[in-house]
């Protein structure tokens, strides 16, 4: 076992679960707010940061989601969507994230008349500019909202079809989590699979592990967003482990939403030790005031995360990413170069 201290800022990282609208720079939000609402021109960055960040006494996922109201207000134009996408990829690259799958719900950005097609294209344009400027790899995951109709999900799935393999790498179901939500979206996810989308689903976060089982068996989920409550459903636990379904774990966010009362009680390391595939993610960089470096340092400080364990997490994440085989090979080479440097060979 390699026990040397790992510098996670320097280490190559991969993030599979990051929401665009939860990861905006407060300074940029203020810029865009001044464009659309001149009466708010006296707002300052500190106030914007406060509005974008989850309160310390957050009681639930629903309260946590209230922090997205302001981001959605300023992300209703092609230019702003492209700008914010670009900036999230830039911020990730500056902490040595080598590959980022960034997700958002296009339907939430159509309030001023943009079509779903225009929203999706704008985000892809921002990502592609960032890729060219910073050398980061990545893709966009389109979220369908659980609190919207199945028809709305189908509309998003159809709108993104032409971009599959051209920036779009997957479909997600996000938003408030009710028990048994999967039954509402069976036809939508069937269509997504038929069209060639990869599928990840938020489940087992604010509700039971049974939702994880349903997401896999009814919706064809290849990965699960969060999924930390599989330990309350033996069927969910067993199918995740047997089928190598990666859990996209977001430690700080889980505490922020009161899904986990205390980080010391988080099951992430128990899952890892038992052979469950996990990745570590921010969920929402701004809302949870975090980065990938912070998340890894947090897990290390609470549970201990030696280099062998981190290597396992990294490679599991690569294999479960929606990247092409070519990109996966590059991501593995990134780590091997770092690993040899770490060992001094």
From TrEMBL:
Pfam families: A_deaminase. The keyword Lipid biosynthesis does not apply. CDD domains: ADA (cd01320). Belongs to the metallo-dependent hydrolases superfamily. Adenosine and AMP deaminases family. Its cofactor is Zn(2+). Gene3D superfamilies: Metal-dependent hydrolases (3.20.20.140). This is adenosine deaminase. It comes from Peptostreptococcus porci. One of its GO terms (biological process) is hypoxanthine salvage. Keywords: Hydrolase, Metal-binding, Zinc. Its EC number is 3.5.4.4. Residues 12-333 form the Adenosine deaminase domain. One of its GO terms (molecular function) is metal ion binding. InterPro entries: A_deaminase_dom, Ado/ade_deaminase, Metal_Hydrolase. One of its GO terms (cellular component) is cytosol.
């Amino acid at each position: 076992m390699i026990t040397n201290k790992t510098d996670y800022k320097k280490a190559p990282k991969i993030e599979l679960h990051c929401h665009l609208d939860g990861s905006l720079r407060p300074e940029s939000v203020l810029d865009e707010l001044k464009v659309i609402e001149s009466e708010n021109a006296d707002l300052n960055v500190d106030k914007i940061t406060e509005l974008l960040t989850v309160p310390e006494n957050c009681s639930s996922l629903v309260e946590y989601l209230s922090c997205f109201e302001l981001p959605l207000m300023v992300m209703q134009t092609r230019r702003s969507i492209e700008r914010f996408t670009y900036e999230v990829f830039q911020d990730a690259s500056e902490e040595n994230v080598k590959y980022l799958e960034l997700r958002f719900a296009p339907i939430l950005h159509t309030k001023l008349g943009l079509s779903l097609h225009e929203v999706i294209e704008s985000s892809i344009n921002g990502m592609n500019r960032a890729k060219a400027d910073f050398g980061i790899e990545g893709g966009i995951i389109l979220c369908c909202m659980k609190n919207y109709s199945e028809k709305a999900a189908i509309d998003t799935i159809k709108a993104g079809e032409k971009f599959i393999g051209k920036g779009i790498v997957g479909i997600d179901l996000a938003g408030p989590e009710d028990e048994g939500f999967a039954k509402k979206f069976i036809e939508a996810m069937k269509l997504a699979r038929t069209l060639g989308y990869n599928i990840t689903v938020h489940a087992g976060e604010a509700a039971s592990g049974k939702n994880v089982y349903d997401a896999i068996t009814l919706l064809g989920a290849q990965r699960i967003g969060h999924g930390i409550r599989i330990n309350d459903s033996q069927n969910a636990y067993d199918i995740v482990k047997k089928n190598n379904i990666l859990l996209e774990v977001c430690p700080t966010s889980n505490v922020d939403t009161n899904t986990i009362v205390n980080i010391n009680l988080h099951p992430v390391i128990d899952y890892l030790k038992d052979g469950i595939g996990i990745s570590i993610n921010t969920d929402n960089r701004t809302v949870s005031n975090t980065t990938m470096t912070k998340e890894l340092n947090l897990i290390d400080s609470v549970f201990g995360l030696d280099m062998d364990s981190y290597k396992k997490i990294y490679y599991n994440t690569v294999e479960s990413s929606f990247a092409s085989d070519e990109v996966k090979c590059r991501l593995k080479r990134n780590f091997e170069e770092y690993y040899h440097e770490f060992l001094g060979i």
